[in-house]
Write a structure and sequence with these properties.
Chain lengths: 221, 221, 221
């Protein structure tokens, strides 16, 4: 059984790196200073879990009890800062495109891992039978950090705008909640994390978008 | 006594519909996709209560224990989306004006109902004697959802800008807190909810505004 | 020992006045109405403490149990509003410059006082040994109110952008956490509050800024 948790930790680590990098990149684009870059990077990585823990009274939030992901995201942000500061060219051309491809995959992996971890937290706290709450906690763990990043960077949350992002998390969360009553929990967990990753990658690849009220998509990047 | 609670539920339902619609309309104006429309709609309706519950450690927040208002706002948002998507013309001319009149009344009713419900929650949680806290919880239940909507939609909260909106809630909250020591609680509750509705409608009708430091009102719509 | 607490209260009072004024000034610049000015003023003064208390389950947050700082910030905001409304000229020329100098010092004092108070709260709640959490609570008490102000006023948080602001608080917080194990707590507390003030004033005076990824500082006011 141990193997499941090792895998989950690896997935979470990949997600932490991707989320922290996305926060740092937003801060860099907004020309924030080093502290702003660190804060946005770390909050993108651990902010979703913090909202989750406060919502169910998991006090103090787990990021404070076991700050391993805080350190991981801090190191990620500092490395990224140093690279961009001293090799600004690296963020152009071929490297940039490779970077974005890798980060897109890591980000998808993180969304999957964080979603199931959020639901695990709900179950451990005794809220496994509150299905709506459990699903909410899974999704908020996955997308909450990115929302805090966007709110703090003063831009409309990405997750509300494009690419089916939160939907992947919602679908995975709902599947996990029902599947774990049918098959062993650990298998259900990894299966659903994987499902989120697949949906998220397909959505990016084929530019799936949800409909808008106007019937057309203004911003079609 | 039952009658009071039935009435309160009806008022809350009207408020939920109005608040969810207002969130959905903001999302539609910002050209968000269906998920963004749902999230803003639902959060406008139940976000105030969520802030209230987290503030006093009412865990998990009541929206998760009894998600009736979540479903109600979800259905409202979906109906509104379908109507606007397939009959975009309906949002012009005469229908639009009728829609806005009805929603304005529902919204006022919701502000009144949510304000007194927030104070009831404070009392039930044993904070009836913390008058400042109780008033805060009433007002935050009334206006917190709209604030979250505006923060997430990246606009200055409406409630901070115009039309005496939060003042109606504040006046009603303070009256309820003092009145319930003089007359039976249920009557005080409905009376004060009604007071909020009246003040709110008069404020919209006669364009009451609070003074600004500059002495003039730049945006006088 | 009493003297330490009297001094701390005086520092906190100065900070409350400065923070409330800064919130009110942002609201006035954004042309918000009186309620918006009050809300931003009060939230800048007490918002950091509120985030701190919610993070560690200090329920209800201390601002509700002992609203002295709420009243203090309310009075500050109202006085400022009246002065600016009826003597708009006072905010020009020489007076403005004196006002900003005084407020800058009060603000630095507040940052120092709020940082150590945040850590005291962590210690009292039994989290003295969670050093990362204690430091976070100190810093969030110092800068959280300003962040809420900026998020609500729809601008990128000042603290993420300029002048080494949060760094002063971080340095003071870390020093206090380690120093209080070496010298008596009350002396460590005042010493570190003083350290924050000095760093903050030097940073403003000499325009210390953290590096940016682009290697240059676009906005050099």
């Amino acid at each position: 059984m141990e193997i499941h948790w090792t895998m989950l930790f690896a997935l979470e680590a990949a997600g932490t790196i991707a989320f922290a990098s996305s926060g740092a990149m937003v801060a860099i684009e907004k020309n924030l200073d080093l502290l702003g870059i660190i804060v946005l990077g770390v909050i993108t990585a651990v902010g979703g879990g913090m909202i989750r823990d406060i919502t169910i009274g998991n006090i103090p939030p787990s990021l404070f009890r076991n700050p391993v992901y805080v350190w991981m995201s801090l190191i990620t942000v500092l490395l990224l800062f140093l690279v961009i500061r001293f090799h600004p060219r690296i963020m152009e051309g071929r490297y940039r495109s490779t970077y974005e491809k890798v980060m897109n995959i890591f980000d998808a992996v993180g969304l999957g891992a964080f979603t199931v971890v959020g639901i695990n937290t709900a179950i451990e706290a005794g809220y496994g039978d509150y299905r709506f709450l459990a699903a909410f906690l899974g999704v908020v763990t996955g997308v909450g950090g990115g929302m805090l990043r966007d709110i703090m960077a003063n831009q409309t949350p990405y997750v509300l705008r494009k690419h089916f992002y939160a939907c992947a998390s919602i679908i995975g969360a709902v599947c996990y909640i029902f599947l774990r009553e049918l098959i062993p929990g650990n298998s259900a967990m990894l299966l659903c994390a994987f499902l989120v990753v697949i949906i998220r990658l397909l959505a990016t690849r084929y530019r799936w978008n949800l409909p808008r009220a106007s019937g057309k998509s203004k911003d079609r990047r």
